[in-house]
Write a structure and sequence with these properties.
Structural class: alpha/beta
Radius of gyration: 22 Å
Strand order of the largest sheet: 5-4-3-2-1-13-12-9-6
Mean pLDDT: 88
Distance between the termini: 60 Å
Shape: globular
Number of strands: 15
């Protein structure tokens, strides 16, 4: 027995050492809290855990200064609310880069700028400003001779996908292809950058726990299912989500562009209706994800392409809005104690054991829609529910036609958007259509394809905001 154990341990050690330079794991450092340690202490914590990359959601001077000389690679964020100015005023973009990037580089090893975050689900309709803002930020990097060292991209949510199941059928929302994706991919190709993607298997599992295996969602051993479209076998929901994006890129002839997963995680606590939000599941997801990334190998569709992922998030953040889960994605409590014990390095993996056998290297579910089964994908949520909203970019005529159908033949409850009713204001086509589409979607049990309306609608995981109107989540 001792000999067998020794040999098994030796094989595992050799396996890990062979992939010591494989994928990379970083962490998102969010600060929507009133009880976090100082930036200096946070940097020490990140270093002590062997994490070599960090992504921040702004460009806070104290944080960037504290990261100076640490050897940690940094991704900074240009907030969504600054996209308009960055797009319309090259001088603003240049000043932003000078103050928030050039002033700290190279002591602070900034490697990328995330221009906006999940812009396509931003209720302020900032999509049209995204690409001009990215180009102006890049032009500013050229001005300061930083364009070779620092890449420019923008994180997308899975709601940017029109189809995602099976993975081989992955495609982007058609109204975004010519408007955003093709020119953005051209920009990424020309500048040698990569696509940033936020992927949350938790939301897909939570919404479809009756058809998605928990083992499949947590990188545990499971039978595996063949994608009928390409013959590849999938063993984890994460890989299926990522390959759906790769397939969508491939359909547009952008196979050469790489990807970085800028957010992924699992909450350790949730409300009663947030299925799967437990400490044990969070530990399993993040721990097995780290193992899967650091032991090398890409996805079934791109097996030779190692992945870089940023775990969400470093701390539990007590001032975040929404359900309990939103405040419990942290790997650490504000006092720097671990919420649960998982490794972040190859060395640490030697002593890591999940309660169930994990999938290693993406080579090992019952597959289900990787976007949560709603036909449009889910992004990082601020609630445990999903809603259907109008896509204002399809034009008034198409919106009106879809609204007429929803309130007529579709059977949506449209009483609340009549004059004098609670959701009549704001009296706009997009607001009224959103309410009607959501009513139809909820009445249909949020089934696949019920939030589409010929491209005039899409699913969101953040509560829609139209005046004082509250959108229902069920009937």
């Amino acid at each position: 027995m001792e000999r067998s154990t020794f040999i098994s341990s030796l094989i595992l050690l050799v396996f890990f050492l062979g992939f010591a330079d494989a994928g990379s794991v970083g962490v998102n450092y969010g600060r929507v809290a009133d009880n976090l340690p100082s930036a200096t202490k946070v940097v020490q914590l990140i270093k002590s855990q062997g994490l070599g990359r960090v992504k921040v959601f702004d460009a806070d001077p104290a944080v960037l200064k504290s990261l100076g000389g640490s050897g940690i690679k940094v991704t900074v964020d240009l907030a969504n609310e600054l996209l308009f100015k960055a797009a319309k005023q090259p001088s603003f973009a240049a000043t932003w880069v000078q103050k928030n990037v050039a002033a700290y580089y190279p002591s602070t090893e900034i490697e990328a700028i995330a221009v906006g975050n999940e812009v396509f689900v931003d209720p302020h309709n900032t999509t049209k400003f995204l690409l001009p803002a990215m180009k102006n930020i890049h032009a500013a990097l050229v001005k300061y001779n930083l364009n070779s060292a620092i890449k420019v991209s923008s994180p997308i949510a899975l709601s940017a996908l029109q189809n995602s199941y099976p993975s081989s059928a992955g495609s982007f929302r058609p109204e975004l292809v010519e408007l955003v994706f093709k020119p953005m991919f051209d920009f990424l190709r020309q500048t040698g950058s990569y696509l940033m993607v936020n992927a949350y298997p938790f939301f897909a599992y939570e919404s479809n726990s009756d058809v998605i295996s928990l083992d499949y969602a947590l990188f545990r051993e499971n039978p595996g299912v063949v994608d009928a479209g390409n013959g590849l076998r999938y063993f984890s929901l994460f890989d299926a989500q990522i390959d759906a994006v790769f397939a969508a890129m491939s359909a547009l002839k952008y196979d050469d562009i790489k990807m970085v997963v800028t957010e992924t995680g699992w909450p350790s606590k949730g409300d009663e209706n947030e299925i799967g939000a437990t400490l044990e599941n969070a530990r399993a997801y993040n721990g097995n994800l780290v193992r899967r990334i650091l032991t090398g190998g890409g996805t079934p569709l791109r097996p030779k392409e190692d992945l870089t992922v940023f775990l969400f998030a470093l701390f539990n953040e007590d001032e975040k809005n929404g359900p309990t889960s939103e405040r419990n994605y942290g790997l650490f409590y504000p006092n720097e104690d671990k919420v649960y014990n998982i490794p972040f390095t190859v060395e640490g993996l030697k002593n890591y054991h999940d309660s169930r056998s994990p999938v290693i290297g993406g080579q090992h579910p019952t597959t289900a829609p990787v976007n949560g089964g709603n036909g449009g994908g889910v992004s990082k949520s601020t609630t445990g529910n999903t809603w259907c909203v109008a896509n204002g970019e399809v034009g008034k005529e198409k919106l009106q036609t879809a609204l007429d159908y929803a309130c007529g033949e579709g059977g949506a409850d449209c009483h609340s958007i009549q004059p004098g009713s609670t959701c009549y204001d704001p009296n706009t086509l997009q607001a009224h259509a959103s309410f009607a589409f959501n009513s139809y979607y909820q009445k249909k049990g949020r089934q696949v394809g019920t939030c589409y309306f010929g491209g005039a609608a899409y699913v969101v995981t953040q509560p829609p905001s139209f005046g004082k109107c509250e959108f229902p989540t069920g009937y």
